[in-house]
Each structure stands twice: as structure tokens, then as C-alpha cells.
Amino acid sequence: MKIIINAKPLSKKLFAPYGDVIETNETNSFIINRGTTKRFHDLAEIDFAQNDGKPIINLFRSQPRKLPIVITMMERHLLGSQLFFPIGGLPYLVVVAEAKNLITPEDLNVFTATGIQGVNYHRGVWHHPLLVLQPNTDFLVIDRGSAQNDLEEVSFLSNKNHWVINF
Amino acid sequence: MKIIINAKPLSKKLFAPYGDVIETNETNSFIINRGTTKRFHDLAEIDFAQNDGKPIINLFRSQPRKLPIVITMMERHLLGSQLFFPIGGLPYLVVVAEAKNLITPEDLNVFTATGIQGVNYHRGVWHHPLLVLQPNTDFLVIDRGSAQNDLEEVSFLSNKNHWVINF
Known about the structure:
By secondary structure, chain A is mainly beta.
């Protein structure tokens, strides 16, 4: 059976169980550089302290998948947070589930992010790999650097239903 | 007397004495997410370890200054690196001097950055506050969070010359 998951617009409030939305807003901002710059301050909980991790900076260039988008797996990182910010103004989809040990497709939540919203998945939060809507959608990515492998995956392929995103 | 400083196009090679240029290139990249994403890996030396600093994530929205741009001061942070990545594709100027104790305007180097190039000033490197060319030029900024003040400034106002950027 095909089950539709409807995407909602990304907002700080709805995304709070999963992590941070990085966007400009009037809260927690102040003027610096003698009036020329507005600083929106400290917008994400960066969490790499486990096992002496350190932040690394990367660029990701992502391509769209075939439609319809069927969710067959999710992943998470137990040792660190992971932040994605689009750098070309293009929108994308965000698929998440809360940081518990066992998840099923019923736990999924899907958001549409604008091209000027970033997300920071908190440590242990399940998320789908990048789902972009246009070719060569680029992101600045801040994640945890370590020789240690920090990827946990869950597959939904044995689920009798197909979980399809509507956006 | 008016002294012109000519800006050069930003490149990894020319910027090496000051920090990192964050941009896509064919070196140190690999394919992830089952073929859908190219990861340009570990592009900047993030350095917040002094005095138990931690990374904080911010957005800066900057406005152009009046032309001509006269450089009357520089600043630096002795406790941490500072990274700027433009998120709307707009170009900007980068003014730097090497991380020594005393600098004069003769030490300045000026670069034009495209809207898809970020810079990461290494700890102690002198830099001018943001110099953007169009209204509402936005950046993602990664710097060191701390209650401790970490700003050192030098003024060139007593210098008998005016140091003007040509770009």
C-alpha cells in the first residue's frame, strides 16, 4: 500500500524535537561593525564533544532523486550533531524522526525548507540523506570529524507499505 | 596622500598565509548518499580549542559602505579562527594582514571573493570587518563562543596617508 507523508513548512517550533532551524529573525540579533552589519547570534547547538571530536567544514553538492520520493531508509550519528545550510538559495526537503533506538516509518516527519533556512540535526536524531529538488543544490555542512565511524542506518525495505513524500 | 591598494582575485594559494578558502574543487572530494551527493571534505582549519572555546553558528547581514572604501582600522581574534561563507551568492572584499603583533597599512592584502567562496581567518590573522558590495549580503559565520572578550583592534587614523581599495 502507498502511504503519503505530507510535508509541512519548516519552522523552529515544529523542528524543535529534532534540532535547530538556522534563519534570520528579530530575536537574539544585534548590530556590529559600526552599524554596517546585523549579527543573528548563536543559532545552533553544535555538539562534537563526544570522544574528543572536532568540527569539520565541508561543501555538499546534491542532485535530485527520481519522483516520487519513497523513503526506504534513515540514518543518524550518535557522536555528533550535523548542520546543513543551503548556499545557493535553493529549497530542499527534510525528513526526520526523534532520537530513540527503534523507529518505524510512522515516526517520520517531513518538512519543506526554503533556500534561506538551514537545519542542525541534534546528536542521535534520525534523518534522511539530502533530498534536493533542483540539480547542483549546494550546502555548507558542519559535522564531526573523527577517524571513528559514526553512522547508524535503519532500512524500511521489509515494511509492507511504500512511504511516499508529498510536497 | 592617497595610496591605492589593488584587489586580487581570491585563491587558495594567495590566501594561504591568512587562512582557508572554502570552495568546491576536484581535490579531496568523494561521492556519498548512494551517488546523489558529492562531498568536498574538511575545507577549513577550525581552531577554538584555546581556553575551552566552542564553535557558535551565526548569520550576518551586511550593508555596503560609502565609496571609496578607505581602510582606517583592522581587527583580529587571538583565541579563535573565524569563518564567513556567503549564502546568497553575492561577492565581497577581503582585507587581511599576517598574524604578527604590529602591522601598518603596507602589510595589507586585498582580495575579491566571489559569491561562492568562503574564507576562514586563522587565529590571530588581522582582517577588516565585512566589506560587501550589495545591500543585504548575508553570510553564515562560524566563530568562537565565549564570555571572554576576544577582539584586538588597530587604528590607522594617525597614518599620514589614505589607503583606498581599488576593486
